[in-house]
Predict the structure.
Amino acid sequence: YQGVRNYAARGIGLFRSEFLLTQRGRIPSEDEQCAAYREVGELAGTDGAAIRLFDLGADKMRPEQEELERNPALGLRAIRYCLENDGMLRTQVRAVLRAAAATNLSLVLPMISDITDVRRTRRIIDEEREDLNRRGCANGTLKIGAMIEVPSAVLIADKLAREVDFFSLGTNDLVQYTLAVDRGNDEVAAWFRSLHPAVLRSVKLTLDAAREASIPAVVCGEMAATPVYAVVLIGLGARDLSMTASSIPRVRRAMAGINTTRARAIAEECLGCATADDVEELVRAQLGEEWPNLFPPETLPAPKGKG
């Protein structure tokens, strides 16, 4: 994390708690989790860290000999898996609450598709906080955020924004679910288009809903970590980007060199395009002309045939 500080970044935008799992099916104990989250919070300091609930699927947790789900990306995973495994969820919630007693932590709910899932999780958090208080265990206040990764969350983002304290916009899954393209399948890789107009409109709807509700929205994923895409995100209204430490220098350099008003105009033009090819051509031409020193040709979207 010292490297992150050296790049003048602030906080930990998304801590993937499932990385704590060291072997198939074994969930760390409450004390083990609490120690890990406390360490993360101490590293982040006053800027804070967002802990995402386990983004797991039944395919990763079942014994290997059991039959796997046919389509795990649309199956029992993320917040659904957490809610169906009440004991696991409550253990993790208690661990985060305890760690938040001495550090600045928030909690992110993954793959929210329905406000009911937010309300169910909030009730569990409140119940576990009350239990910790009864037992005299120190715990802290948590801000609760929703991962915006599926179209249903985008379409109800205005209502969802009233139920949470912030949004984390997960662009990798948002592209996958919006375009119905498995990002791990090489046979359909050509259809995975981050600059597809439907994706950009989804991002804009989400950011607008957050702004109207006066809550923060952090954009995560490869779009946030790619300078060309980051320009479009800034133009769409994004102000907080979360990425791996290694991506910070190049994104920071690009953001420092652009004009936000021009980025906004370019993004507006992108929203008017009909195809991903059109958006990529526009971005290639506009960014290459406006900021050639920041965006040499090899960093821009490669030309594709017109369809």
In short: The two ends are 45 Å apart (CA to CA). Residues 115-134 form the longest helix (20 residues).
